[in-house]
Design a protein that fits this description.
This protein is an alpha+beta fold. It has four helices and nine strands; from the N terminus they run E-E-H-E-H-H-H-E-E-E-E-E-E. The longest helix is centred in the N-terminal third of the chain and has 30 residues. The two termini are about 45 Å apart.
């Protein structure tokens, strides 16, 4: 068996159709890593092969961001100075009473939704939608091509009250991801995996969703003891 047939981090056999990344270990040695072990590879100091020549880009973007902020602040100061020099006789506007934003107005409440206060159904649907738009859905699609339809659970918190845990399981393997509903800029992250369903806690085995061949998850009622992928 070639060393590229297994993940260099967890030593698990790479399944047919499963997405992988090639990293460069110290000494420029190539290592193949499965999608669920990318974070561990980066913690070991391995560099993704495709990004090996772009390591200087992030500091440049940060410098550009600071430069743009300084430019905007400078323009604002110059505008206020011109208004002061003009000696306008117009009276300063009198602030009116504060009004609550119209909940029906476009964009009202954006970024203020508290995921803890949402209904359970809405939280699960939002978590599933976030997962479906992530790269992790492609990972599940590859596993489905090799292992068939899985059992799927979307539910209990994964680390924080705002985070939802998604479990996708087969008879001989299972994977879990965390979806942070409070911070939509935070990517869907792998949090655990194993080989036996007996390792899962009871809440992770509340099968309440199904996954199609594209790896997309949908909340659905699943009968107890039903075959994977079958809903009521």
């Amino acid at each position: 068996m070639s060393s590229f047939d297994t993940c260099a981090v967890c030593a698990r056999t790479i399944l047919s159709g499963e997405r992988t990344r090639t990293y460069l270990a110290p000494g420029a040695e190539k290592r193949v890593v499965c999608d669920l072990c990318r974070a561990r590879a980066e913690q070991l100091g391995w560099v993704w092969e495709e990004a090996a020549g772009e390591t200087a880009a992030p500091p440049l973007r940060r410098r550009e961001s600071r430069g743009l902020g300084g430019l905007l602040r400078g323009r604002g100061a110059a505008r206020r100075a011109r208004q002061s020099d003009a000696g306008s006789d117009d009276p300063a506007p009198v602030p009116g009473p504060e009004r609550s934003p119209d909940p029906a107005a476009p964009g009202a409440g954006v970024g203020r939704l508290d995921p803890v206060a949402e209904s359970q159904g809405t939280r699960l649907e939002r978590a599933a939608a976030r997962f479906n738009s992530s790269e992790e859905a492609h990972t599940v699609a590859g596993l489905i091509r090799s292992l068939g339809a899985p059992w799927v659970s979307v539910g209990s918190a994964a680390g924080t009250p705002s985070e939802v845990r998604i479990t996708v399981a087969w008879e001989l393997s299972w994977y879990q991801w965390g979806v942070d509903l409070r911070d939509e800029s935070r990517p869907v992250r792998p949090i655990d995996k194993g080989r036996e369903m007996g390792q899962l806690d009871g809440s992770a085995k509340q099968w309440n969703a199904v996954a199609d061949e594209s790896g997309r998850i949908r909340i659905a009622a699943v009968a107890a003891g039903a075959r994977p992928g079958k809903e009521v």
